[in-house]
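Morning F.,

Quick status update on the modeling queue. The single chain you submitted on Monday has been processed. Sequence for confirmation:
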Amino acid sequence: MQSIEQIDCDSNFALSTQLSGRTTPLVLRNLVKHWPLVQQALRSDQAVADYLRSLYPGVPVQAFFAEPEAGGRFFYNADMSGFNFSQRQTRLDAVLDGILQHSGCSDAPVFYMGSTTADYCTPGLTAQNPLQLDGVTPLISLWLGNRSHVVAHYDVPDNIACVGAGKRRFTLFAPQQLANLYPGPLDFTPAGQPVSMVDARQPDFARYPKYRDAQQHALVAELEAGDAIYIPSMWWHQVEGLSELNVLVNYWWRQTPSYCGLPTDALLHAMLSIRDLPPSQRQIWQQQFEHYVFNANDQTSAHLPAEKRGVLAPMLEHTARKLRAMLLNRLNR
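C-alpha cells below.
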C-alpha cells in the first residue's frame, strides 16, 4: 500500500486550480477546518448531533442498519440471496439517537445514513459550511454513521469528500485494478454500484489471488475532521468510519453536461447487444467504437458537410434529446 499525495490548504488555497485536469487522488488537509460543523466536532459528538438536529426539518430519510455480527461491513449475506443489513425509512434524529446511545459499546449495531441530499435533510448546512467549486454545480450529499466499512466501489462523477466529524480511512484503487478487485454483480448491488467481493480486512487470497496486486497498488489515507479528499471518476474507493460518530459531506459532479447520458447505461446496452456476438463481429464493433467514440476527433466527420454531421457533431442538448428519443423508440420495440 502507498500513501496518497496530499497538500495543506491555507487561506489562499485555490481548489479549482489544484483540481483542473487532475486524474489522480489528492488529500486536502484542513480544507474545511473553518466549517461550523467541524468546530462542533472538535467539541464533542453531542455537539455535532445537536448542530445537525438544529438544521433538521423532520423529513423522512433512508438509513441502513446492521447487527454487530456484520462488523460494520455492509455486504451480501452468506449465499448472496440478500444483504447483511436492512434499509428502512426513519428520521435523522433517530439515527443520531441510536449512534449516541451505543457510543462506546464494543458490540454496537451499525447505524448509517448515506448519500442523502444535504439541502433536503439539513437545509442551511451547505450555506453555513460552504465549499467553492468554480465552473461546476455539484450534488451535495450528507453521510453519517458510527463505525462502518463501505466496501470498495466506484462512482461515475468526480468527488470531493469532506470529513465534518470523526475519522475516516480511505483506500483507493486505480480503475485499471478492475479485474484484480473481483467486482460483484452489476444488477444486484448493496447500494447501487458494483462492489469488490474481497473482504479487504481479511482477504481470501486462495479465492481471490489477483487481489494481491490490487493491494500492492492501493493508496491509503486517514482523514480527520476538517480534511477532505478528491476522488476522480471511476477510482475504486473503500471508506471506513473509525470513530463513534462520523459525518461526511461530499460533492459530486460530472465533466459533461447534464443532458449527456450515463456511461453505465452504455455499458449495459453493450452487454445486451454486443457481448454475445461471435468473436469476429465483436472485433468489428470494437473498431466501430474506437472510430466513433474512443478515438473520435475533428477528423471523424470532417469529410461531411457541417449541416449533415448529425450525431457525429459535438454533442449539444437538442442532439442529446434526439439520440435519447431514438434509443427509447428502439428499446421499446
